[in-house]
Amino acid sequence: MMTEFDVQPQPGADKTNMSLPELELVELQAMLDWLSTYGADSQGGVTRLLYDNAWSEAQHALAKQMTEKGLVPAFDQAGNLYGTLSSKESVSSAQDGVATYPIVTGSHIDSVVHGGKYDGAYGIVAGILALEYLHKHFGRPKRTLQVVSLCEEEGSRFPFAYWGSRSITGVTTLEEVQYLLDQQGVSFSEAISGAGFGPDRGLKPAAQTYGAFIELHIEQGQVLERNSCSIGIVSDIVGQRRYSITVKGEANHAGTTPMSWRKDALAGAADMIVAVRRIALQTGEPFVATVGRITAEPGVGNVVAAKATFSLDIRHVRQEILDRCWQEMLQTFSRIAGEEHLRLEWDEHLSVTPTPMNEKIRQDIQEICEREQISYLHMPSGAGHDSQIFQSACPTAMIFVPSQQGISHNPREFTTEADLMNGFRVLVRLLYKYGYED
Q1: 3-state DSSP call for residue 152?
Q2: Contacts for 413 with CB less than 8 Å, ≥ 6 apart
Q3: In CATH, what is the architecture of 15-237+354-437?
């Protein structure tokens, strides 16, 4: 059942149409389906990699959509796309000597290879439609509202993630990533220039200042579905550590080398992987540890492995837990290596600290859910998101909607229309509060 806004419409507005109309739901799903055609593959998946043709077509198509829906589109040098609903006064006007910066919502336009149509795209589409709805029913806001289609988050093309939010917050500059190569040997600098972006294109600098950032996103897990909740209010985004663990032994004949004489790198790695699972289970939720890849050399069935390398991904919402578990794992790996006469090496590829979301915005989201009678759950995010980058620069919050069976990064990724609409309703309410009331 739709709930009416308890606010007054702008003069001349249709007072009988103050609830979120069914048309919004139809357009929300239709626009997601439309956006998924950019980068669509024959298996029903979506592939939009940073600065490739599908990505470029999608961003420019969204810019056209923004114009049609009453927003002012603009690209920055990194390729982030902004749709602005300006306030009655200039964004840069000062109030008591303090500049008023826009309230921004949105997410990322890029996808993983052969991904789904909701990841990232939902937050962009919902943001565009939310600003259109607010403008249509309430006129221009007191404070400028924006939706941003972030150029990249996934790290699917180049070995680097969160370029969109990192460029906006100034955490990373083009100079720091320009020489990165994709799998075809194309440099980051060549790719950005080929897509029509970069510092020499006359576009505004990527670095921006936000009053707040609000990201609406599918959960990509099963927590909401299993708890029969429609909205997830993200409390924290987990910290992550990623490593490559290398175990070195000695290649030898599988038939003539007694078991007690072997320096079997693969057997040692296997004991270490078992220890990873044991330590994770002993630590308890929400700590998770994953070994997703292992290779052995020489990789021959009748030769004792001389070298084994495996990946390790650990995550938790508290830094001290991450630190403690890594040290326990490293000590265990070292003990196993010593007992088996092996050598141990390790490299850290990623270290991201846990990020709490803004408590005031979380409370506002909870109050909206209670007023709308929408079930909700405060929960951590086990996946990384642009919001963890923005939180260091401005008040930031994330709103989750359920993912059916927790499936994501997959063509089978799906969220029901009812859940999509609930997330949309909460976002509209929240943007109204910050843009029209506060």
Answers
A1: coil
A2: 115, 116, 117, 118, 119, 218, 403, 407
A3: 3-Layer(aba) Sandwich (3.40)
| Cα distance between the two ends of the chain | 27
Is residue 288 classed as helix, strand or coil in its secondary structure? Answer: strand
Q: Which ranges in 309-416 belong to alpha helices (H)?
A: 319-339, 359-372, 387-390
Q: What is the pLDDT of residues 367-395, one digit of tens each?
A: 999 999 999 999 999 998 999 999 999 99
pLDDT band of residue 1 (cuts 50, 70, 90) is very low
In the chain, where are the structural domains located? 15-237+354-437, 239-352
Instruction: Give the orientation angle of helix 53-68 with respect to helix 121-138, to 10 degrees.
Output: 10
Q: Are strands 212-218 and 231-237 parallel, antiparallel or unpaired?
A: unpaired
Average pLDDT score over the chain: 91
189-223: buried (b, 16+ CB within 10 Å) or exposed (e) per residue? eebbbebebbeeeebeebebebbbbbbbbbbbbeb
Q: How far apart are CA 299 and CA 225, in angstroms?
A: 42
Angle, vertex CA 122, rays to CA 183 and CA 180, nearest 5 = 20
Instruction: Tell me which architecture the domain covering 239-352 has in CATH.
Output: 2-Layer Sandwich (3.30)
User: Both tokens of residue 419?
Assistant: 């859940």
